[in-house]
Predict the structure.
Amino acid sequence: MRGWAGEVRGLGACGGGAGAKRADSGGVGGAPELAAAAPRWGRFGLPPSGTRRLGRHETISGVPVLTYLGPEGTFTHQAAQDLARAGEDLVPRGSVPEVVQSVESGDAQAGVVAFENSLEGPVPANLDELLLGTERCVIAGERVLTVSFTLFRASDDQSPLRGVSSHPFGLAQCSRFIADRGLQTRRALSTAGACRELARSPCCGWGAIGPALAGDLYGLRREADQLENERAATRFVVLRTSCLPPTGKDRSAFSFRPSHDEPGSLVRLLEQFSLRDINLTAIKSRPTKELLGEYIFYIECEGHIADERLRDAVTGTLRFRSKSRFLGSFPEDPGRPPHHERGGADVPRAYRQMLAKVSP
């Protein structure tokens, strides 16, 4: 198992780059994809002429790279635009492991992946890649995007609709529309990929479900909008090897793997947060993929690792026999509601009053 130690790893990863400027957000979107198109190269799959050997964190143009799960026109692409820092070049990759490992290896400065959906929950494969496949990566930012789906048809196909293709998340989110019309379904590697394939190889009576601008990008005819059962949101995270200092509205992520299967081991860890009135925003368990019944717990909470209360909670967890890993502190998406109001604001003052009664 890589990336584990009997202490919180990577605390020195936070710092530097405060106030880093984001690149302008774009207007393209899609769904939380698990695989898609290949990297952006020249014709015939070859790098452009004059390409030099890539340096660390560099593209062919010599600027920092932010990778994301392609193709262009997906929600992942939009989130990447929102989370990129000024000067970073966006480069699509063909799978989530490629994105994550490009950051882990240092070939890219950052990578953006889908992390959670309000209807389907976490994206297990992507969470596992972070927990089990990395040592250096930390979450350095998040973006929550509202998703809405459109039905596209080939421009000259006027036959009755008999089937649709999309990413499994897209099919799940539009299941009512599909069931009401008795449509067949095909799974695609991404929502934008479904639109691209329909444009490349039109099939009579078939449509693609995808983001509005993805279909427009590939020259398809828009037939119906807002197909989703209910409005949903997808959360994307940007992975880097360091995170920013506190902003005042942050979250922090950790993973814990109890060393022994014993009663109360997880409760004792969680108590370190509750006793300090730290709000936990996520608790997820994932198998270690080593032995049946062994799990890693992924935990998110409000606050930054540099905050006093969270520091005390983390040092409290280190007293127990568990393998702990720090997975980053990051600014919350601007659209999130205010933090839980912590009680005990007067505790330090009350304690000082008590100490004042102690004779020198």
